[in-house]
Q: What sequence folds into this?
């Protein structure tokens, strides 16, 4: 038995959980003068409340307890490293960790292409990053996770970061729950076509998977240089994976907003593309399939605004019933066009509602 929906309905944002333990005040005049000292003293459920000052990080901070790390607000509490020896500022290895209300800065030219501000491993769940400024030179947040939520953040390019560096704000190597990236802004600040807001990569090497739902919603490019990708999907490993691209705004794109690079389309239960505003500067559609592909999936699309409703030479519509500029493919290198029909409704197994 099946249940009919007019379109796949994405999961709603979750409320950021409140801490359940004690508050450990952290600052130059407090009992805990460093974040590391407070992490050492904390137990699961505690909150580390950082004063409105600048905290300089000179070594990676292991977050191996389920804690909330909270500042006084963006631009008020700043956690910064200027040392390229700090390849990971916060190394999260447990579930139920929250970062909120602060500015996090990775302020040096990238040298290793692996530097990250927040790294989440061990397939952790209950990870929240809310109302932070994430200022990067290479990676902002790297996730080998089960479920996470990133909301109300401003992603910027660090002042000391090198010009013309290729960098990624959010890197996903595994997700299998209902993961949400909602209501964030991001700046392409390194040079034209050097910034990807989200990249899905290293799935195989991380023993990761793509399942459940990934919701990319209400995110907005702040114009500087041309954006490379809103989402660059380099690996498609998993199954029953729902991808939602909803109400995002990109103003200047040097490439296709959502790139599926040699995808196995069979892993998707659907791709939903609703209410986005794009320029389609590169003429590849909102979603573009490049290199090659395997299989097929349902495409649900409605309410998108596309300034340039045409394809560039060598690209064509991958949504063949009917044709549209929602999904394109690289016809110059892919001999057989994908068959990705636009569908008006979606059938869910009734057992999903029991």
A:
């Amino acid at each position: 038995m099946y249940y009919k929906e007019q379109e796949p309905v994405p999961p709603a944002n979750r409320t950021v959980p409140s801490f359940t333990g004690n508050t450990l005040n952290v600052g130059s005049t407090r009992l805990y003068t460093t974040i590391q000292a407070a992490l050492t003293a904390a137990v699961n459920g505690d909150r580390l409340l950082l004063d409105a000052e600048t905290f300089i990080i000179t070594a990676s901070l292991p977050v191996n307890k389920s804690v909330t790390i909270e500042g006084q607000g963006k631009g008020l509490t700043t956690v910064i490293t200027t040392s390229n020896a700090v390849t990971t500022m916060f190394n999260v290895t447990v579930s139920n960790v929250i970062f909120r209300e602060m500015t996090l800065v990775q302020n040096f030219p990238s040298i290793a292409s692996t530097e990250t501000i927040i790294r989440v491993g061990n397939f952790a769940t209950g990870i929240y990053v809310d109302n932070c400024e994430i200022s990067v030179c290479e990676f902002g947040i790297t996730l080998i996770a089960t479920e996470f939520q990133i909301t109300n953040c401003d992603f910027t390019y660090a002042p000391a970061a090198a010009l013309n560096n290729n960098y990624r704000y959010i890197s996903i190597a595994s997700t299998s729950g209902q993961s949400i990236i909602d209501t964030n802004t991001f700046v392409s600040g390194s040079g034209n076509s050097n910034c990807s807001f989200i990249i899905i990569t290293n799935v195989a090497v991380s023993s990761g998977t793509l399942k459940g739902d990934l919701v990319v919603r209400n995110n907005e490019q702040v114009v500087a240089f041309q954006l490379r990708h809103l989402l660059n999907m380099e690996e498609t490993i998993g199954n029953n994976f729902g991808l939602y691209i909803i109400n995002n705004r990109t103003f200047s794109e040097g490439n296709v907003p959502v790139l599926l690079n040699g995808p196995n389309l069979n892993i998707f239960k659907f791709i939903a593309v609703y209410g986005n505003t794009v320029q389609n500067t590169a003429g590849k559609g909102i979603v573009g399939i490049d290199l090659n592909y395997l299989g097929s999936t349902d495409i649900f699309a409605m309410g998108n605004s596309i300034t340039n409703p045409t394809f560039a030479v060598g690209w064509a519509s991958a949504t063949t019933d009917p044709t549209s500029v929602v999904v394109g493919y690289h016809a110059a290198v892919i001999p057989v066009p994908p068959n990705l029909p636009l569908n008006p409704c979606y059938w869910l197994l009734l057992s999903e509602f029991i």
The helical segments are 35-41. Residues 225 and 285 are 20 Å apart (CA to CA). DSSP finds one helix and 31 strands in the chain.
